[in-house]
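User: tokens in, sequence out, please.
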């Protein structure tokens, strides 16, 4: 009988790999609106950046859009960010653009969805806005 097992001290060690998608937030000043672009994991680590982005976006005085289609995770920090924008937007509704399922679930579960206009397409891109041929 042979023993093919590798002794524990010689067993290859596989490093633990955790898929981390660091979060980011960017404020873009577009002609018709101020757009906040969220990507990756929106969590407490991004908290200070979210506070700064909220202040920048709110002081622009333009309609606010939050593009969330590249968000992979969101915790209460991200929800608080969305609620802050919605509650301080001076009577204008905040548009949440293309939120993934994880974000939709959170905003629906917490009823923040009532404070936002959620759209699954890019605002302003309709058949009338397209420069291509129009149906007769």
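Assistant: Sequence out:
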């Amino acid at each position: 009988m042979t023993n093919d097992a590798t002794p524990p001290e010689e067993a290859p060690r596989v490093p633990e790999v955790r898929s981390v998608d660091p979060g980011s937030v960017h404020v873009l000043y577009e002609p018709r609106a101020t757009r906040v672009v969220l990507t990756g994991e929106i969590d407490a680590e991004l908290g200070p950046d979210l506070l700064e982005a909220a202040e920048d976006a709110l002081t622009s005085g333009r309609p606010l859009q939050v593009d969330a289609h590249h968000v992979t995770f969101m915790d209460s920090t991200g929800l608080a960010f969305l609620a802050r924008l919605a509650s301080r937007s001076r009577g204008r509704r905040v548009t949440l653009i293309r939120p993934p399922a994880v974000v939709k679930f959170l905003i629906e579960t917490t009823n923040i969805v009532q404070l936002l206009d959620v759209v699954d397409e890019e605002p302003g891109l309709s058949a009338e806005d397209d420069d291509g041929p129009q149906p007769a």
